[in-house]
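Report of the visiting student (M.T.), summer placement. My assignment was to run the structure pipeline on a short list of targets and document each run. The first record concerns Dihydropteroate synthase.
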Amino acid sequence: MLRLGDHLLDLSKPRIMGILNLTPDSFSDGGLYLDPERALLRAKAMVAEGADLLDLGAESTRPGAEPVPVEEEKRRLLPVLEAVLSLGVPVSVDTRKPEVAEEALKLGAHLLNDVTGLRDERMLALAARYGVPAVIMHMPVPDPRTMMAHAHYGDVVAEVRAFLKAQAERALKAGVPQVVLDPGFGFGKLLPHNLALLRHLEAIVELGHPVLVGLSRKRMIGELTGVEAPQERVFGSVAAHLYAAMKGARLLRVHDVKAHREALLVWEALWG
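After the run finished, the structure tokens were exported:
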């Protein structure tokens, strides 16, 4: 179980986290949901399609992305967050800035999703103070602009596992009630690294915390399928996420909710 405010998310089966990017420059859907009304309509559509929770982000963290000023990130995020919180599903906030995280948590966000892996003590303190779980993601350095220059590993599975284990222990010791682990596919990782992590995902699952996997429309899918346009990488994304579910992932962060919901229903009927 993952406690998200008044919501108790049963993780005995994989759950779908719908992505809502409130950015002009995200790699797949940048600019589509900058308008708050369009963003709310998209959120409602994902809930209707079967999203178990939503993940809102107002700063792109694609490789090479430039940081967004705090006030601009707040301007994009907070009005939409306030509206989406009324939809009756848990809402996660994808930010690496404590100033943004605090405002989101004050409004009632249920989950803190930090791509920098809770390296900042202030993020730990916020999650603990507000009593919300946090997603700990791995990337080799806490800056998307330079992370791909650090895509060098001796044993990527062992190194990612060690980082996530250490950060999880640190977070729980600081008072964060629960943590979710994310291997960070594509964040400072090349295709061989991503494939190794996916093939050996059980090494992360065995740490005993819920595991989140986000492969939706990513370059890895394009490299494997030859599909150039991110929006057309739906089938490859579903295949990768089903494999992750078989390996024990319990949160799948996706753009295409309907396709993943239908695939999971069939998979669950066959595999239980």
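The radius of gyration is 17 Å. The chain is about 40% helix and 15% strand. I thank the supervising group for their guidance throughout the placement.
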